[in-house]
Amino acid sequence: MSQLILFAIDIGAVALLVFGLYFPRHRRRDLVVAYLGVNVGVLAVASALSASNVGAGLGLGLALFGVLSIIRLRSTELDQHEVAYYFSALALGILGALSTTQLWLSAGLMGLILVVMFLGDHPRLLRHYRHQILVLDSAVTDHLALVAQLEQLLGGRVHVVTVQRLDLVNETTVVDVRYSVKGRASTVSPAGTAAPAGAQR
């Protein structure tokens, strides 16, 4: 009976993770089914292994290796927060399949995962910080001049800038910029921020 209760808690937890946290914040529909499928798949595999004679550790390790390989070898790019949701869905599935006499411990750990994801991915956490890859229509070799140009272009304070490509022939500079825009109102979420005029994401 306790195992069925854990299953129910896991389903409720992953539903809250996906439909209560991830989708309202990021609106990426294709990853909804991915997170649900990973969670239920790991839950099913781990439960079957725990009831069989096969080494649960070996079987679960192979299952996790397969899932993480899928994450790593995807053709579409995943942001770091999306990888974090993958791991959270995995962890919830594992906790839901573990046979334990302390039901409250597994339920508490599932709750901890949800709380951490709620706080860590909250829109107000470090909300002034941005990250963009820009293509400048000039070749800038001086670092200080580059920082000054980016700060004027982005209207914020540049914290880290990395030149990814400097093309002296076509007069372009590709830079990875991490900056903050304190005091500026933003009507678009950071993930959907358009590239500033004169630059390209």
Structure report:
The chain is an alpha+beta fold and 201 residues long. 56% of the residues lie in helices and 14% in strands. It has helices at residues 2-26, 29-50, 56-72, 80-97, 103-120, 143-154, and strands spanning 129-136, 157-167, 172-180. Strands 1-3-2 form a three-stranded antiparallel sheet, covered by helices on one side.
Q: What distinguishing features does this structure have?
A:
alpha+beta, 201 residues, three-stranded antiparallel sheet, 6 helices, disordered C terminus
> Low-confidence parts lasting 5 or more residues at pLDDT below 50?
185-201
C-alpha Rg, in Å?
A: 22 Å
How far apart are the first and last residues' alpha carbons, in Å? 53 Å
Please report the number of helical segments. 6
Mean pLDDT: 83
Q: Helicity, in percent? A: 55-70%
Biggest sheet details: 3 strands, antiparallel
Strand runs, count = 3
Kindly report the spatial arrangement of strands forming the biggest sheet: 1-3-2
- What is the element string, with H for helices and E for strands? HHHHHEHEE
**Which word captures the global form?**
elongated
Output the structural class.
Answer: alpha+beta
**Residue fraction in strands:** 5-15%
